[in-house]
Amino acid sequence: MNKSTIKLLDVVAVTVDLPEYNLYRGQVGTVVELLAGGAAFEVEFSDASGGLRLRNGRTYESVGLRPKQIMVLHFEAASPDSVPQMMPA
């Protein structure tokens, strides 16, 4: 992940297991601070608010992560022109 593509308030997913923080690949958080000039990011993980499981929306972990440990999630469809094509083997 190129560090320039991650911005403040981006929704990201963890790409590696981090058992020392009780975080596992696929868990979703929000970038809340840029660290070391964008070389790392403070990511906040909160319990769900609303939905089927009513919780309090409270932060359960906030941890500094490197770009290779997270990926930005996108919530809009990609343009067909921007999707890379698969090359035959």
Describe this structure in words.
A five-stranded antiparallel sheet has the order 4-3-2-1-5, with no helix packed on it. Helices cover 0% and strands 33% of the residues. It is globular. It has no helices and five strands. The chain is mainly beta and 89 residues long. A hairpin with a 4-residue loop joins strand 2 and strand 3.
State the gist of this model.
With 89 residues, this protein is mostly beta strands.
How are the elements arranged and paired?
Layout: E1 11-14, E2 28-35, E3 40-46, E4 59-65, E5 70-72
Antiparallel strand pairs: 1-2, 1-5, 2-3, 3-4
Keywords:
5 strands, mainly beta, five-stranded antiparallel beta sheet, 89 residues, single chain
H/E order of the elements? EEEEE
Approximate shape: globular
Backbone CA Rg: 15 Å
Weakly predicted, low-confidence segments: none
Structural class: mainly beta
- Mean pLDDT, all residues: 84
Helix content: under 10%
Extended strand count? 5
How widely separated are the two ends?
25 Å
What is the count of DSSP helices, taking H or I runs of 4+ residues? 0
**Percent in strands:** 25-35%
Strand order of the largest sheet: 4-3-2-1-5
Q: What can be said about the biggest beta sheet?
A: 5 strands, antiparallel
